[in-house]
Amino acid sequence: AQNQPVISPFFKKK
Amino acid sequence: LEAKFDDSTIFKKIIDSFKDSVSQINFMCSESGIEAQAIDDSRVLLVSLSIPPSCFETYRCDRPTTVGVYLSSLSKLLKSASSSATLTLYVEDQPDELLLLFEESKASKSMEYKMKLVDITADMLEVDSDMKSDVSVEMSGVEFTKIVRDLTQLSDSFTVSVGKDGIVFSVDGETASGKVLLQPKEDLANPENNLSISMTKTIDLSFASKYLLDIIKASTLSNMISLKFSEETPALFEFKMEKGGGIGFYLAPKYDE
């Protein structure tokens, strides 16, 4: 089975 | 803000390219153009939009303004768009509404819509379309769209591998599998068919088919798509517009449990 990570942790907040 | 498109269908194409991915968005208007960013409801896909002043016939923004809209409402108004009509967007200094004015000079017809703005709380994230990547690919958007449509029918997971032989798109479904290999090529007569790959490492990444089907809706904005991949970081699928700016979709690859 594969997991789909959410996107926000990959980017810093401005 | 007072921003006029000489062809109202440009703005319609831009909005239609991501209205099925995200439901609401803040347009950040400044003298350097309109920028926007939004994450889809499942928090998996990040959409990043840039419409610089070069995309407009005239563009004026006296002070930075945030314009929050529901995309389904905006999209309804943009059904009035036609290539023979111009579209001017107006926002007042203390904005509570967005005014859209369509004008057809030949038909001596004008249409005016007002739309209530919404307060959207959303963090702006640091996205950098010049981000370093192990693999960059430029290819025909039409070709990419067809491959995504064909292969995603077979599986909910879509794999991209790039190595010395070229780029391979593949799916491995329960009842069928499929694979498309493309090698770099240069078509001088039809540059929109060019395919170029630059790579420092090979990659092999899987993405959810569902999001790729949303991403290809933006292929009306450009003949070419630019793809950027690195292991374990979000991929960037970007459509650059002829007059500058464009739309980028950041999608994190799936990983095995």
Overview of the structural elements:
- The complex is a heterodimer of chains A (14) and B (257).
- With 14 residues, chain A is mainly beta.
- Helix content of chain A is 0%, strand content 14%.
- Chain A is built from no helices and 1 strand.
- Chain A is rod-shaped and about 35 Å long.
- The termini of chain A are far apart.
- Chain B is mainly beta.
- Helices cover 14% and strands 44% of the residues of chain B.
- Chain B has helices at 8-16, 71-77, 141-152, 209-215; strands spanning 2-5, 24-30, 33-39, 45-51, 58-60, 65-70, 86-91, 97-104, 109-116, 135-140, 157-163, 166-172, 177-182, 196-199, 203-208, 224-229, 235-240, 246-251, 255-256.
- Chain B is globular.
- The model of chain B has no long low-confidence stretch (mean pLDDT 94).
- Chain A binds chain B through residues 1-8, 10-14, and chain B through 39, 42-46, 123-127, 157, 206, 208, 233-234, 250-252, 254-257.
Quick structural overview:
Chain A is an all-beta fold and about 15 residues long. Chain A has one strand spanning about 1-5.
| Structural category of chain B | mainly beta
Mean pLDDT of chain A: 86
H/E series of chain B: EHEEEEEHEEEEHEEEEEHEEEE
How large is the share of residues in beta strands of chain B? Answer: 35-45%
Major sheet attributes of chain A: none
Please, how many helices of chain A? 0
Q: Give the termini separation of chain A.
A: 34 Å
User: Biggest interface in this structure?
Assistant: A-B, 13 and 23 residues
Order of helices and strands of chain A: E
**Fraction of helical residues of chain A:** under 10%
Give the overall shape of chain B. Answer: globular
List the strand order in the largest sheet of chain B: 6-2-3-4-18-17-16-10-14
Largest sheet of chain B: 9 strands, antiparallel
Spatial gap, N to C terminus of chain B: 49 Å
What characteristic shape of chain A results from the CA principal axes? Answer: rod-shaped
Would you count the extended β strands of chain A for me? Answer: 1
Rg of chain B (CA only):
19 Å
State Rg of chain A.
Answer: 10 Å
